[in-house]
Amino acid sequence: MVYRNMNINLIVFNEILGNEVCSRFDDNIKKEIILVIKGWIYVHNNISCVKKKIIGKLKRPYIKNKILSSEIVKIVPGAGKTRYEGWISIEVQELDITSTYDLNYYFANKKIDNILLEHVIEHIDYKNFIHFLVTIKPYLKKGAIIRIAVPDRNHPSEYVRLLTGVNGLEPGADDHKYFYGIDDFENIACQTDYKLDKVEYFDNNGIFHKNNFDLSDGYISRCSKNYKGLFTENNEEYRKMIESVPENLREQFYKLNISYTSLLADFINE
């Protein structure tokens, strides 16, 4: 459907955003927002996309106040439906982690203690990941932890790599931009002046390494300990996974009771 010629009036505005959101604004404010909507619809030609952008913009002051009123600032950018007690979940429409403007808007007067990025970084370009780590530094407290989990390029299962790599085959992986290994994290941490605490990863020889980590610095669902999904719920999928692992590397999967794992590490601002 072509939306660019759509007549956006107050009735349509209510239909796009819903009564709960619209009830917060008088008609004059709504008319001003309608002008913005028309511009976005012309560019995107997609009502769903425009709705997310508008709601994201409207929620920014609320999120900023929540940050300013928090004694300890823990954020989950690109959170989706993820919600953890004591953490502030922020959608991509509300915070672009590569935008200096956005970071300054939220954190100019309140520095960050923790950032949790579970399977987010692979959706941005490699250079933007580095840009984020450099740009966010002034907004971090000393000792702040950025906990990052991404698909692991060194996972010995060829099937897992096909599912999770660049333009991966599993749902949501079709826009993966880069496939990271532990050596990438080591180089990036050195380049951006962070201490790297390696939590969970396969090395370049396909051997699994794991260290304990403090859950108060961020819960990771897609790690060896917590993973529940395709390979734990479907025997056929597990078979495809384990049979695509070289035979000399399979024993660790049985011994450690692992299937899907992430490349998981803490970038610490010293």
Automatic annotation (TrEMBL):
Name of the protein this chain belongs to: Methyltransferase domain-containing protein
InterPro entries: SAM-dependent_MTases_sf (IPR029063)
Organism: Methanolobus vulcani
Domain of life: Archaea
